[in-house]
Amino acid sequence: MNLVDWFKGMVASRRGEELVDPLIEVQPSPRALKRALLVCLRCIDLDANKRPKMGQIVHMLEADDFPFRSEHRPARERYSVPSSVPTSAKAPHPKKQTEKVDAAKSRRK
């Protein structure tokens, strides 16, 4: 098993908290951890053309409006990453998110 498959397995089995270094003084909030895990999944997409650029990664990690699925879903589905679904289908494409941000900025001017 390679590192990417191991990581996907940890996320799929809802063991994302175990990926965080226990020696870090301040552990991330569940929301921050979920954001980081989703970004990581995007970065390891099998299709290199679908992987986000570094600027998009920074935006996804810093944005307060990062699109999360409903927090009201059952816990067993919340961190589920089925192996049969391509990584690109699990989170919105960053280009689309960037286009939304650009459109919103244009409307403000």
TrEMBL record:
Record's subcellular location: Membrane
Residue numbers spanned by region Disordered: 69-109
Keyword Repeat (UniProt): no
One GO MF term: ATP binding
Composition bias, Basic and acidic residues: 69-79, 96-109
KW Iron-sulfur (keyword) present: no
GO cellular component: membrane
EC number: 2.7.11.1
Transmembrane segments: none
Keywords from the UniProt entry: ATP-binding, Kinase, Membrane, Nucleotide-binding, Phosphoprotein, Transferase, Transmembrane, Transmembrane helix
Superkingdom field: Eukaryota
Membrane topology note: Single-pass membrane protein
Catalytic activity: L-seryl-[protein] + ATP = O-phospho-L-seryl-[protein] + ADP + H(+); L-threonyl-[protein] + ATP = O-phospho-L-threonyl-[protein] + ADP + H(+)
Protein name: non-specific serine/threonine protein kinase
Native organism: Gossypium harknessii
